[in-house]
User: Fold this.
Amino acid sequence: MGKTVVATVLLASLCLASVPTMAVPLQKTEIGPSANWALHADLDALRKSSIGKLFLAELKAQGVEEKLQPFVDAFAFNPLTDIRGVTVYGKGQDRNDVVAIFNAKIDADRLLGIIRWNPQYQEINYQDTTIYRWLNEDKKKGPSADQLMYGCIHKGQQVVISTGQDALKGAVDTLKGAGKPASAEVLNQIPQAEGGTFLQIGATRIGEIVGQDPKAAILRQAESLGLSAGETTEKVLIGLRLQGQSPEVAENMLKMAQGVLALAQLAAQEQPKLSEWAKSVNVARNDKTVQARFEAASQSIFAFLKEQWQKKQQQQQTPQGTQP
Assistant:
């Protein structure tokens, strides 16, 4: 929740007029030309889904709404209900190349009035757009982790933020149609939204994104990726497509994925639900492309995630060296 609140404060620091009452679907023309990955989350669709309703009910039961109330009163903004959708894109791992575009319900006057107290607040004129700068302070990590942020509002409907001023200016150009269009290389990887879809991801040149992370070995072998997640008839559906540089690479990715699933199936005693789900994943290869599909009841996924969260909380509360 901490990261959500921080992101909300950053979003709240922009001058935002009233926005439409419905979430805006992914607009591929909003993605910058240098991006090699993009993500779109339809939060309205998620909240309408069975699993989304279960999560919101659990947050309420845990008292999160009550804890957020002082924040809601100060900013006239509720991060649990007022962010309708978000598109994020970037290039490689450089956070200064990342741009986020929000659709949300915000009280512009109150929020901008608050952010003007930020010690690094500044207004920057760029063409006919006002860019706002402020300092995001990380009290847990100290001053060395503080980060300057940049943001603007486009046509009274889209809030755009980035840690890079150049990336923000590039996003403004893209939204105005003054810049180059996004590369078809990444756009073609983003799955089409279907009924109930609440997440779409597309990426190319995967090695630039995952780097040398040993946990991402299977992804380093992929040239491109497409992922979608959604819900229909109270079942969560996840589809994944990985494309290798050659059929041989794709066959290696397939074998690696099958190996991971086999290991998960063997963990029936420790994680019976994961073992059950691993058996239901459908993985197949067609030439250079590996596809995987998974579906499970929304209630069972929520129950599993809740159980894992509770176990983690217990471990954090148990003194080191003692048994829970």
Notes: The radius of gyration is 21 Å. Residues 1-23 have pLDDT under 50 and may be disordered. The first helix runs from residue 2 to 12. Residues 2-182 form one domain.
